[in-house]
């Protein structure tokens, strides 16, 4: 290998590498099990969701209940529908999810994260749209712990009345 000492040398070195080798490194393979499902784990706050998706009619089952039963608030149902809308595959996949920990809002976010990851594993061409929308990034914000000598994480007790 020759020494690269200028920008022209670098351009020449890059031009010498075959384009097929560069493209082969970027191509992602679909990851599905023997039943044709894609699996992913989604997390949000203290909630963890295990999500399986497979081609179907758009049925969503969370902890053995329908999405409308488990997430009664329309806002939470909208959160679950976002990955399908962004990817443009509404009504094409069935979702089976088990979720534990946290509250309903965190659980909805965890299922959304899991669905997004599973969609991009099932069909890698959807990755760009999901990544651009920020759905593949785990939202790492969690509740700050309570400190001793404090009323809550940062709130202090009243210092003085007068």
Automatic annotation (TrEMBL):
Q: Which GO terms describe its cellular component?
A: cytosolic small ribosomal subunit
Which Gene Ontology terms describe the biological processes this protein takes part in? translation
Any GO MF annotation of the entry: structural constituent of ribosome
Stored InterPro entries: Ribosomal_Su5_D2-typ_SF, Ribosomal_uS9, Ribosomal_uS9_bac/plastid, Ribosomal_uS9_CS, Ribsml_uS5_D2-typ_fold_subgr
What Pfam families is this protein classified in?
Answer: Ribosomal_S9
Query: Keywords on this record?
Result: Ribonucleoprotein, Ribosomal protein
Family as reported in the entry's similarity comment = Belongs to the universal ribosomal protein uS9 family.
Q: What is this protein called?
A: Small ribosomal subunit protein uS9
Question: What's the source species for this entry?
Answer: Pseudorhodobacter antarcticus
- Organism classification: Bacteria, Pseudomonadati, Pseudomonadota, Alphaproteobacteria, Rhodobacterales
Gene for this chain:
rpsI
